[in-house]
Structure to design on (514 residues):
Protein backbone atom coordinates (compact mmCIF):
# COMPACT_ATOMS: atom_id res chain seq x y z
CA UNK A 1 0.00 0.00 0.00
CA UNK A 2 1.40 3.39 -1.03
CA UNK A 3 2.06 5.77 1.84
CA UNK A 4 0.33 9.07 1.02
CA UNK A 5 2.36 11.84 2.64
CA UNK A 6 0.12 14.58 1.23
CA UNK A 7 -3.18 13.55 2.81
CA UNK A 8 -3.00 16.11 5.64
CA UNK A 9 -2.18 19.13 3.48
CA UNK A 10 -5.76 19.82 2.50
CA UNK A 11 -7.65 18.36 5.43
CA UNK A 12 -5.56 20.24 8.01
CA UNK A 13 -5.27 23.50 6.10
CA UNK A 14 -1.49 23.45 5.88
CA UNK A 15 0.48 25.66 3.56
CA UNK A 16 1.76 23.19 0.99
CA UNK A 17 5.42 22.28 0.77
CA UNK A 18 6.53 21.54 -2.80
CA UNK A 19 9.69 19.53 -3.38
CA UNK A 20 11.53 21.37 -6.16
CA UNK A 21 12.25 18.17 -8.03
CA UNK A 22 15.75 17.89 -9.44
CA UNK A 23 16.16 17.76 -13.20
CA UNK A 24 18.84 15.10 -12.74
CA UNK A 25 16.40 12.95 -10.77
CA UNK A 26 13.51 13.46 -13.21
CA UNK A 27 15.59 13.05 -16.35
CA UNK A 28 17.26 9.79 -15.35
CA UNK A 29 14.11 8.17 -13.98
CA UNK A 30 12.03 9.34 -16.96
CA UNK A 31 14.50 8.08 -19.54
CA UNK A 32 14.60 4.76 -17.71
CA UNK A 33 10.78 4.55 -17.88
CA UNK A 34 10.92 5.22 -21.61
CA UNK A 35 13.68 2.63 -22.14
CA UNK A 36 15.93 5.38 -23.49
CA UNK A 37 18.94 4.68 -21.30
CA UNK A 38 20.95 1.64 -20.26
CA UNK A 39 22.32 3.46 -17.24
CA UNK A 40 20.46 1.21 -14.79
CA UNK A 41 20.64 -2.46 -15.86
CA UNK A 42 18.40 -4.97 -14.03
CA UNK A 43 21.17 -6.12 -11.72
CA UNK A 44 21.62 -2.54 -10.50
CA UNK A 45 17.99 -2.10 -9.37
CA UNK A 46 17.66 -2.62 -5.58
CA UNK A 47 16.13 -6.01 -4.86
CA UNK A 48 13.80 -4.43 -2.33
CA UNK A 49 12.15 -2.29 -5.03
CA UNK A 50 9.07 -4.30 -5.93
CA UNK A 51 8.12 -1.72 -8.58
CA UNK A 52 11.65 -1.17 -9.78
CA UNK A 53 12.65 2.45 -10.35
CA UNK A 54 9.00 3.28 -11.16
CA UNK A 55 8.53 3.37 -7.38
CA UNK A 56 10.80 6.42 -7.13
CA UNK A 57 8.16 8.55 -8.86
CA UNK A 58 6.79 10.54 -5.94
CA UNK A 59 3.81 11.66 -8.07
CA UNK A 60 2.69 8.09 -8.85
CA UNK A 61 -0.13 7.14 -6.50
CA UNK A 62 -0.19 3.54 -7.67
CA UNK A 63 3.47 2.54 -7.69
CA UNK A 64 5.37 5.19 -5.74
CA UNK A 65 7.02 3.94 -2.56
CA UNK A 66 6.24 7.44 -1.32
CA UNK A 67 3.32 9.33 -2.83
CA UNK A 68 3.06 13.09 -2.55
CA UNK A 69 0.48 14.93 -4.62
CA UNK A 70 2.28 18.27 -5.06
CA UNK A 71 5.58 19.24 -6.65
CA UNK A 72 7.49 21.98 -8.44
CA UNK A 73 9.48 21.61 -11.64
CA UNK A 74 11.25 24.23 -13.71
CA UNK A 75 10.77 24.87 -17.39
CA UNK A 76 14.33 26.12 -17.20
CA UNK A 77 15.42 22.50 -16.90
CA UNK A 78 12.77 20.86 -19.09
CA UNK A 79 12.88 19.75 -22.70
CA UNK A 80 10.69 22.48 -24.23
CA UNK A 81 9.80 20.25 -27.17
CA UNK A 82 6.42 18.98 -25.96
CA UNK A 83 6.82 15.47 -27.38
CA UNK A 84 10.43 15.21 -26.29
CA UNK A 85 9.45 16.29 -22.79
CA UNK A 86 7.16 13.26 -22.50
CA UNK A 87 10.33 11.17 -22.59
CA UNK A 88 12.92 13.35 -20.88
CA UNK A 89 10.58 14.78 -18.21
CA UNK A 90 7.98 12.03 -18.27
CA UNK A 91 7.92 11.60 -14.50
CA UNK A 92 6.31 15.02 -14.12
CA UNK A 93 4.56 15.63 -17.45
CA UNK A 94 2.90 12.20 -17.75
CA UNK A 95 1.48 12.34 -14.21
CA UNK A 96 -2.18 11.71 -13.41
CA UNK A 97 -3.51 15.27 -13.23
CA UNK A 98 -6.61 14.18 -11.31
CA UNK A 99 -4.61 13.46 -8.16
CA UNK A 100 -1.50 15.64 -8.52
CA UNK A 101 -0.68 19.35 -8.70
CA UNK A 102 2.42 20.64 -10.47
CA UNK A 103 3.66 24.20 -10.07
CA UNK A 104 5.93 25.26 -12.90
CA UNK A 105 8.86 27.62 -12.49
CA UNK A 106 9.46 29.64 -15.64
CA UNK A 107 13.24 29.40 -15.63
CA UNK A 108 13.63 33.10 -14.86
CA UNK A 109 16.58 32.31 -12.64
CA UNK A 110 18.47 30.52 -15.39
CA UNK A 111 17.77 33.41 -17.75
CA UNK A 112 18.55 36.19 -15.26
CA UNK A 113 21.83 34.60 -14.25
CA UNK A 114 22.93 34.22 -17.86
CA UNK A 115 23.05 30.43 -17.65
CA UNK A 116 21.01 30.36 -20.85
CA UNK A 117 22.95 31.93 -23.70
CA UNK A 118 20.64 34.51 -25.25
CA UNK A 119 21.23 37.69 -27.24
CA UNK A 120 20.47 40.36 -24.64
CA UNK A 121 21.13 43.15 -27.15
CA UNK A 122 18.05 42.01 -29.08
CA UNK A 123 15.75 41.20 -26.17
CA UNK A 124 12.40 42.11 -27.70
CA UNK A 125 12.60 40.81 -31.25
CA UNK A 126 15.55 38.42 -31.32
CA UNK A 127 14.73 34.98 -32.69
CA UNK A 128 16.27 33.20 -29.71
CA UNK A 129 14.19 35.26 -27.27
CA UNK A 130 11.02 34.73 -29.26
CA UNK A 131 11.61 31.00 -29.30
CA UNK A 132 12.43 30.94 -25.57
CA UNK A 133 9.37 32.96 -24.50
CA UNK A 134 7.03 30.93 -26.64
CA UNK A 135 8.61 27.60 -25.68
CA UNK A 136 8.46 28.28 -21.94
CA UNK A 137 4.89 29.58 -22.03
CA UNK A 138 3.68 26.66 -24.15
CA UNK A 139 5.41 24.08 -21.95
CA UNK A 140 3.95 25.61 -18.78
CA UNK A 141 0.45 25.72 -20.29
CA UNK A 142 0.67 22.14 -21.47
CA UNK A 143 2.00 20.48 -18.33
CA UNK A 144 1.52 22.65 -15.22
CA UNK A 145 -1.48 23.56 -13.10
CA UNK A 146 0.08 26.80 -11.82
CA UNK A 147 2.96 28.55 -13.53
CA UNK A 148 5.27 31.45 -12.76
CA UNK A 149 5.57 34.23 -15.25
CA UNK A 150 8.87 34.74 -17.03
CA UNK A 151 10.53 37.33 -14.85
CA UNK A 152 13.99 38.85 -15.16
CA UNK A 153 14.97 38.80 -11.47
CA UNK A 154 15.84 42.12 -9.86
CA UNK A 155 19.35 40.94 -9.04
CA UNK A 156 20.10 40.29 -12.74
CA UNK A 157 22.01 43.60 -13.01
CA UNK A 158 24.55 42.68 -10.29
CA UNK A 159 28.22 42.63 -11.33
CA UNK A 160 28.53 38.86 -11.37
CA UNK A 161 25.78 38.68 -14.02
CA UNK A 162 26.27 41.96 -15.86
CA UNK A 163 28.83 40.59 -18.30
CA UNK A 164 26.37 37.88 -19.32
CA UNK A 165 23.18 39.93 -19.47
CA UNK A 166 24.28 43.49 -20.10
CA UNK A 167 21.79 44.67 -17.47
CA UNK A 168 23.00 47.71 -15.56
CA UNK A 169 20.10 48.67 -13.26
CA UNK A 170 17.19 46.98 -11.50
CA UNK A 171 14.88 49.16 -13.60
CA UNK A 172 16.06 47.30 -16.70
CA UNK A 173 15.14 44.00 -15.03
CA UNK A 174 11.68 45.35 -14.31
CA UNK A 175 11.21 46.75 -17.82
CA UNK A 176 12.11 43.44 -19.42
CA UNK A 177 9.85 41.55 -17.00
CA UNK A 178 6.95 43.80 -18.02
CA UNK A 179 7.68 43.05 -21.68
CA UNK A 180 7.53 39.32 -20.94
CA UNK A 181 4.32 39.77 -18.95
CA UNK A 182 2.68 41.49 -21.91
CA UNK A 183 3.80 38.67 -24.17
CA UNK A 184 2.21 36.10 -21.87
CA UNK A 185 -1.00 38.14 -21.53
CA UNK A 186 -1.31 38.52 -25.31
CA UNK A 187 -0.41 34.95 -26.24
CA UNK A 188 -1.67 32.72 -23.44
CA UNK A 189 -4.61 30.37 -23.80
CA UNK A 190 -6.81 31.24 -20.78
CA UNK A 191 -7.64 28.22 -18.66
CA UNK A 192 -4.71 26.01 -19.67
CA UNK A 193 -2.64 26.99 -16.64
CA UNK A 194 -2.97 29.65 -13.95
CA UNK A 195 -0.14 32.14 -14.11
CA UNK A 196 1.57 33.51 -10.99
CA UNK A 197 2.84 37.09 -11.23
CA UNK A 198 6.39 37.02 -9.83
CA UNK A 199 7.04 39.81 -7.31
CA UNK A 200 10.59 40.88 -6.46
CA UNK A 201 12.01 43.22 -3.85
CA UNK A 202 14.98 43.51 -1.52
CA UNK A 203 13.18 45.92 0.82
CA UNK A 204 9.87 47.76 1.02
CA UNK A 205 10.92 50.50 -1.40
CA UNK A 206 12.03 48.16 -4.18
CA UNK A 207 9.14 45.78 -3.47
CA UNK A 208 6.64 48.63 -3.84
CA UNK A 209 8.21 49.83 -7.07
CA UNK A 210 8.06 46.37 -8.62
CA UNK A 211 4.54 45.66 -7.36
CA UNK A 212 3.09 48.97 -8.57
CA UNK A 213 4.53 48.32 -12.03
CA UNK A 214 3.17 44.77 -12.44
CA UNK A 215 0.00 44.55 -10.31
CA UNK A 216 -2.24 45.50 -13.24
CA UNK A 217 -1.52 42.12 -14.83
CA UNK A 218 -3.62 40.42 -12.14
CA UNK A 219 -6.58 42.74 -12.59
CA UNK A 220 -9.47 41.21 -14.58
CA UNK A 221 -10.90 44.71 -14.97
CA UNK A 222 -7.89 45.45 -17.14
CA UNK A 223 -7.18 42.13 -18.85
CA UNK A 224 -10.37 40.12 -18.44
CA UNK A 225 -9.86 36.34 -18.55
CA UNK A 226 -6.26 36.86 -19.64
CA UNK A 227 -5.27 38.37 -16.29
CA UNK A 228 -2.82 36.38 -14.17
CA UNK A 229 -4.46 34.38 -11.39
CA UNK A 230 -1.91 34.28 -8.56
CA UNK A 231 1.48 35.39 -7.29
CA UNK A 232 5.00 34.11 -6.74
CA UNK A 233 6.90 35.78 -3.90
CA UNK A 234 10.56 36.08 -4.84
CA UNK A 235 13.52 38.05 -3.54
CA UNK A 236 13.33 38.96 0.14
CA UNK A 237 9.61 38.24 0.29
CA UNK A 238 10.83 34.72 1.00
CA UNK A 239 12.55 34.92 4.36
CA UNK A 240 11.62 38.43 5.48
CA UNK A 241 8.39 38.03 7.42
CA UNK A 242 7.72 41.75 7.70
CA UNK A 243 8.17 42.36 3.98
CA UNK A 244 5.94 39.42 3.05
CA UNK A 245 3.17 40.50 5.41
CA UNK A 246 3.31 44.11 4.22
CA UNK A 247 2.96 42.92 0.65
CA UNK A 248 -0.02 40.68 1.46
CA UNK A 249 -1.78 43.47 3.37
CA UNK A 250 -1.24 45.82 0.44
CA UNK A 251 -2.56 43.25 -2.04
CA UNK A 252 -5.61 42.70 0.16
CA UNK A 253 -6.32 46.41 0.33
CA UNK A 254 -5.95 46.71 -3.44
CA UNK A 255 -8.55 44.00 -3.93
CA UNK A 256 -6.09 41.72 -5.71
CA UNK A 257 -6.58 38.64 -3.53
CA UNK A 258 -10.11 38.00 -4.79
CA UNK A 259 -11.02 35.05 -6.98
CA UNK A 260 -12.11 31.45 -6.81
CA UNK A 261 -8.57 30.04 -6.81
CA UNK A 262 -5.75 32.36 -5.74
CA UNK A 263 -2.41 30.57 -5.46
CA UNK A 264 0.50 32.31 -3.72
CA UNK A 265 3.86 30.60 -3.98
CA UNK A 266 6.83 31.58 -1.78
CA UNK A 267 10.02 30.72 -3.62
CA UNK A 268 12.84 28.69 -2.23
CA UNK A 269 12.31 28.56 1.52
CA UNK A 270 11.46 25.50 3.57
CA UNK A 271 12.99 25.81 7.01
CA UNK A 272 10.68 24.20 9.55
CA UNK A 273 9.39 27.34 11.34
CA UNK A 274 8.44 28.89 8.01
CA UNK A 275 6.12 26.01 7.22
CA UNK A 276 4.20 27.03 10.35
CA UNK A 277 4.45 30.77 9.62
CA UNK A 278 3.00 30.31 6.16
CA UNK A 279 0.30 27.98 7.46
CA UNK A 280 -0.71 30.61 10.05
CA UNK A 281 -0.80 33.28 7.33
CA UNK A 282 -2.85 31.09 5.00
CA UNK A 283 -5.43 30.41 7.69
CA UNK A 284 -5.88 34.12 8.44
CA UNK A 285 -6.13 35.00 4.75
CA UNK A 286 -8.78 32.32 4.31
CA UNK A 287 -10.75 33.50 7.32
CA UNK A 288 -10.60 37.24 6.75
CA UNK A 289 -9.83 37.81 3.06
CA UNK A 290 -10.70 34.93 0.74
CA UNK A 291 -11.37 31.26 1.60
CA UNK A 292 -9.96 30.27 -1.81
CA UNK A 293 -6.34 31.27 -1.13
CA UNK A 294 -3.61 28.62 -1.09
CA UNK A 295 -0.01 29.27 -0.06
CA UNK A 296 2.77 26.96 -1.20
CA UNK A 297 6.52 27.03 -0.68
CA UNK A 298 9.40 25.02 -2.07
CA UNK A 299 12.98 23.95 -1.60
CA UNK A 300 15.47 21.86 -3.53
CA UNK A 301 17.26 21.01 -0.28
CA UNK A 302 16.68 17.23 -0.44
CA UNK A 303 18.42 17.11 -3.82
CA UNK A 304 21.16 19.61 -3.06
CA UNK A 305 22.16 17.82 0.13
CA UNK A 306 22.48 14.55 -1.75
CA UNK A 307 24.91 16.22 -4.17
CA UNK A 308 27.03 17.03 -1.12
CA UNK A 309 27.02 13.42 -0.03
CA UNK A 310 24.60 14.15 2.81
CA UNK A 311 21.59 12.12 3.91
CA UNK A 312 18.73 13.46 5.98
CA UNK A 313 18.44 12.22 9.54
CA UNK A 314 15.48 12.79 11.83
CA UNK A 315 14.97 16.55 12.28
CA UNK A 316 15.65 18.38 15.52
CA UNK A 317 12.19 19.26 16.81
CA UNK A 318 13.16 20.40 20.27
CA UNK A 319 11.46 23.56 21.47
CA UNK A 320 14.57 25.71 21.35
CA UNK A 321 15.56 25.10 17.74
CA UNK A 322 13.79 23.39 14.89
CA UNK A 323 16.07 22.29 12.09
CA UNK A 324 16.67 19.57 9.57
CA UNK A 325 19.66 17.35 10.31
CA UNK A 326 21.93 15.69 7.80
CA UNK A 327 24.74 13.18 8.06
CA UNK A 328 27.79 12.93 5.84
CA UNK A 329 27.86 9.51 4.22
CA UNK A 330 31.13 7.73 3.57
CA UNK A 331 32.03 5.88 0.40
CA UNK A 332 32.53 2.26 1.31
CA UNK A 333 34.12 -0.46 -0.77
CA UNK A 334 34.70 -2.67 2.25
CA UNK A 335 31.17 -4.05 2.69
CA UNK A 336 31.35 -7.79 3.29
CA UNK A 337 27.62 -8.45 3.69
CA UNK A 338 25.60 -7.52 0.59
CA UNK A 339 22.38 -7.79 2.61
CA UNK A 340 23.36 -5.38 5.37
CA UNK A 341 20.40 -2.98 5.73
CA UNK A 342 20.94 0.68 4.98
CA UNK A 343 21.26 2.92 8.00
CA UNK A 344 17.90 4.75 7.67
CA UNK A 345 14.30 3.61 7.99
CA UNK A 346 11.39 4.92 5.92
CA UNK A 347 9.59 3.91 2.78
CA UNK A 348 12.78 4.33 0.76
CA UNK A 349 15.42 3.45 3.35
CA UNK A 350 13.74 0.24 4.50
CA UNK A 351 13.91 -1.08 0.93
CA UNK A 352 17.66 -0.51 0.61
CA UNK A 353 20.78 -2.26 1.75
CA UNK A 354 24.27 -0.82 2.07
CA UNK A 355 25.35 -2.33 -1.25
CA UNK A 356 22.53 -0.50 -3.07
CA UNK A 357 24.21 2.77 -2.11
CA UNK A 358 27.83 1.59 -2.27
CA UNK A 359 27.48 -0.33 -5.51
CA UNK A 360 30.83 0.33 -7.16
CA UNK A 361 33.51 -2.13 -6.05
CA UNK A 362 37.27 -2.05 -6.65
CA UNK A 363 38.07 -2.65 -10.31
CA UNK A 364 34.59 -1.81 -11.63
CA UNK A 365 34.34 0.70 -14.48
CA UNK A 366 31.98 3.66 -14.39
CA UNK A 367 29.88 4.95 -17.29
CA UNK A 368 32.92 6.68 -18.74
CA UNK A 369 34.83 3.39 -18.87
CA UNK A 370 37.17 4.54 -16.16
CA UNK A 371 37.93 2.70 -12.96
CA UNK A 372 35.59 3.94 -10.26
CA UNK A 373 37.23 6.05 -7.58
CA UNK A 374 34.05 6.10 -5.51
CA UNK A 375 31.71 3.38 -4.32
CA UNK A 376 28.79 5.50 -5.52
CA UNK A 377 27.34 5.78 -9.00
CA UNK A 378 24.53 7.95 -10.36
CA UNK A 379 21.82 5.74 -8.90
CA UNK A 380 23.40 6.08 -5.45
CA UNK A 381 22.75 9.82 -5.57
CA UNK A 382 19.20 9.30 -6.87
CA UNK A 383 18.41 6.88 -4.03
CA UNK A 384 19.70 9.35 -1.44
CA UNK A 385 17.66 12.11 -3.09
CA UNK A 386 14.53 9.99 -2.78
CA UNK A 387 15.25 9.26 0.88
CA UNK A 388 15.98 12.92 1.60
CA UNK A 389 12.74 14.03 -0.05
CA UNK A 390 10.73 11.62 2.07
CA UNK A 391 12.42 12.79 5.28
CA UNK A 392 12.05 16.46 4.35
CA UNK A 393 8.31 16.07 3.84
CA UNK A 394 7.90 14.00 7.00
CA UNK A 395 9.89 16.52 9.02
CA UNK A 396 7.79 19.43 7.81
CA UNK A 397 4.55 17.65 8.57
CA UNK A 398 5.76 16.54 12.00
CA UNK A 399 6.52 20.18 12.78
CA UNK A 400 3.10 21.30 11.55
CA UNK A 401 1.32 18.68 13.67
CA UNK A 402 3.21 19.77 16.77
CA UNK A 403 2.44 23.40 16.02
CA UNK A 404 -1.30 22.69 15.69
CA UNK A 405 -1.38 20.67 18.90
CA UNK A 406 0.44 23.25 21.00
CA UNK A 407 -1.20 26.33 19.56
CA UNK A 408 -4.69 24.98 20.15
CA UNK A 409 -3.85 24.45 23.83
CA UNK A 410 -1.92 27.69 24.39
CA UNK A 411 -3.61 30.20 22.09
CA UNK A 412 -5.58 32.03 24.78
CA UNK A 413 -2.52 32.27 27.02
CA UNK A 414 -0.24 33.84 24.41
CA UNK A 415 0.19 37.59 24.81
CA UNK A 416 2.19 39.14 21.99
CA UNK A 417 2.32 42.44 23.86
CA UNK A 418 4.32 40.85 26.66
CA UNK A 419 6.72 38.55 24.86
CA UNK A 420 9.61 36.85 26.57
CA UNK A 421 11.99 35.67 23.88
CA UNK A 422 15.22 34.11 25.04
CA UNK A 423 17.38 31.18 24.07
CA UNK A 424 15.06 28.83 25.92
CA UNK A 425 11.39 28.46 25.03
CA UNK A 426 8.96 29.07 27.85
CA UNK A 427 5.56 28.62 26.21
CA UNK A 428 6.01 25.03 25.07
CA UNK A 429 8.48 22.21 25.40
CA UNK A 430 8.01 21.08 21.77
CA UNK A 431 7.44 24.25 19.70
CA UNK A 432 9.70 27.35 19.58
CA UNK A 433 8.21 30.45 21.16
CA UNK A 434 8.69 32.47 17.96
CA UNK A 435 6.39 30.07 16.07
CA UNK A 436 3.61 30.37 18.64
CA UNK A 437 3.96 34.15 18.99
CA UNK A 438 3.95 34.54 15.21
CA UNK A 439 0.68 32.64 14.87
CA UNK A 440 -0.95 34.89 17.45
CA UNK A 441 0.58 37.96 15.83
CA UNK A 442 -0.93 37.28 12.41
CA UNK A 443 -4.32 36.60 14.02
CA UNK A 444 -4.29 40.12 15.40
CA UNK A 445 -2.66 41.63 12.32
CA UNK A 446 -5.42 40.68 9.90
CA UNK A 447 -8.13 42.23 12.08
CA UNK A 448 -6.13 45.33 12.95
CA UNK A 449 -7.34 48.76 11.83
CA UNK A 450 -3.70 49.82 11.41
CA UNK A 451 -1.81 46.73 10.19
CA UNK A 452 1.11 48.66 8.69
CA UNK A 453 1.71 50.45 11.99
CA UNK A 454 1.48 47.13 13.79
CA UNK A 455 4.15 45.67 11.50
CA UNK A 456 6.40 48.61 12.34
CA UNK A 457 5.78 48.20 16.06
CA UNK A 458 6.74 44.52 15.93
CA UNK A 459 9.73 44.94 13.61
CA UNK A 460 12.21 43.59 16.18
CA UNK A 461 10.14 40.48 16.75
CA UNK A 462 9.68 39.86 13.03
CA UNK A 463 13.43 40.05 12.53
CA UNK A 464 13.69 37.04 14.82
CA UNK A 465 11.40 35.18 12.43
CA UNK A 466 13.59 35.67 9.38
CA UNK A 467 14.62 32.61 7.47
CA UNK A 468 17.18 31.84 4.81
CA UNK A 469 17.21 29.77 1.69
CA UNK A 470 19.56 26.86 1.28
CA UNK A 471 22.97 27.94 0.00
CA UNK A 472 24.46 25.73 -2.65
CA UNK A 473 28.08 25.05 -1.81
CA UNK A 474 28.54 21.70 -3.46
CA UNK A 475 31.03 19.18 -2.19
CA UNK A 476 30.54 16.90 -5.15
CA UNK A 477 33.90 15.14 -5.73
CA UNK A 478 36.08 16.93 -8.24
CA UNK A 479 36.83 13.75 -10.16
CA UNK A 480 33.19 13.11 -11.07
CA UNK A 481 32.60 13.92 -14.72
CA UNK A 482 29.62 16.12 -15.49
CA UNK A 483 27.08 15.46 -18.21
CA UNK A 484 25.16 18.72 -18.09
CA UNK A 485 26.02 22.41 -17.79
CA UNK A 486 26.01 24.12 -14.43
CA UNK A 487 22.72 25.78 -13.54
CA UNK A 488 21.83 27.97 -10.62
CA UNK A 489 18.42 27.99 -9.04
CA UNK A 490 16.78 30.55 -6.83
CA UNK A 491 16.88 28.29 -3.79
CA UNK A 492 20.54 29.14 -3.35
CA UNK A 493 20.04 32.85 -2.72
CA UNK A 494 20.44 34.09 0.83
CA UNK A 495 17.14 35.81 1.64
CA UNK A 496 17.92 37.11 5.11
CA UNK A 497 17.18 40.82 5.19
CA UNK A 498 20.20 43.00 5.67
CA UNK A 499 22.76 40.43 4.55
CA UNK A 500 24.87 41.02 1.50
CA UNK A 501 23.70 38.81 -1.34
CA UNK A 502 26.39 36.65 -2.88
CA UNK A 503 25.56 34.66 -5.99
CA UNK A 504 27.95 32.00 -7.16
CA UNK A 505 27.96 29.38 -9.86
CA UNK A 506 27.82 26.06 -8.05
CA UNK A 507 27.84 22.47 -9.18
CA UNK A 508 24.43 21.02 -8.38
CA UNK A 509 23.03 17.55 -8.36
CA UNK A 510 21.69 18.14 -11.86
CA UNK A 511 25.32 18.09 -13.01
CA UNK A 512 26.14 14.66 -11.62
CA UNK A 513 27.18 11.96 -14.03
CA UNK A 514 29.18 8.91 -13.19
Amino acid sequence: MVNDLSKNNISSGYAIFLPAISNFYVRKISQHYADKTDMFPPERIPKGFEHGLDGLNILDKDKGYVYYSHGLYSAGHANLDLEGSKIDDGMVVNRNRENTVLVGDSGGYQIGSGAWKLDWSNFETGADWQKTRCGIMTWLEEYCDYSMTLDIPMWGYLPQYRDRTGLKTPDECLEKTIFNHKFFIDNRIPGKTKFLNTLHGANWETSEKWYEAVKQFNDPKVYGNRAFEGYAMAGDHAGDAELLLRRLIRMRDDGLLAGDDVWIHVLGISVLPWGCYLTAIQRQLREHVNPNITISFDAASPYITASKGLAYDYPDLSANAWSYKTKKLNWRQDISNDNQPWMYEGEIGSRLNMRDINYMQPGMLNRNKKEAKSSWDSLSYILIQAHNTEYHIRGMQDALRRFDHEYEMLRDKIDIHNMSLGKTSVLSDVVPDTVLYFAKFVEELFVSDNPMDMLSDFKAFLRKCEGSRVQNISTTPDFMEFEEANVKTEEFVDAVKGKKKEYSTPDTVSDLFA
